[in-house]
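Input record, target 12 of the design panel.
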């Protein structure tokens, strides 16, 4: 059997009957055609690309948590020096952080508030 990738002779796997390997790293089952192998490899590449994207998104979300923790620290510092409370939530459009200022009385009870505004995309809600 010859390799569908490089054309070199393939060698049967000693542990799996009907599975053939090439020095270039390609493999195929004896029952597979070159088209079957090409389709399998294309599907593997597609799934790996989706996995890479999911891992990248997960890393962005982890970075987003760090950003939110930093934002919370900043808002805590601001609230201690102002007569206001700053509330945050996630933006439904871009996943960024939305803020709104809440006016508070001397007992820190809300007496007025504006809408949430996303610091990333400018989306307004509430």
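The sequence produced for target 12 reads:
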């Amino acid at each position: 059997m010859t390799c569908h990738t490089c054309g070199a002779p393939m060698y049967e796997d000693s542990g799996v009957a009907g599975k053939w390997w090439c020095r270039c790293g390609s493999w195929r089952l004896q029952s597979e055609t070159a088209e079957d192998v090409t389709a399998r490899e294309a599907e593997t590449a597609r799934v790996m690309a989706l996995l890479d994207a999911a891992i990248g998104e997960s890393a962005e979300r982890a970075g987003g948590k760090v950003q939110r923790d930093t934002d919370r620290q900043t808002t805590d510092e601001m609230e201690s020096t102002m007569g206001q409370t700053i509330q945050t939530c996630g933006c439904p459009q871009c996943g960024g952080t939305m803020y709104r200022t809440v006016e508070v009385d001397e007992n820190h009870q809300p007496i007025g508030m504006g809408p949430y505004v996303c610091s990333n995309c400018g989306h307004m809600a509430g």
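The radius of gyration is 28 Å.
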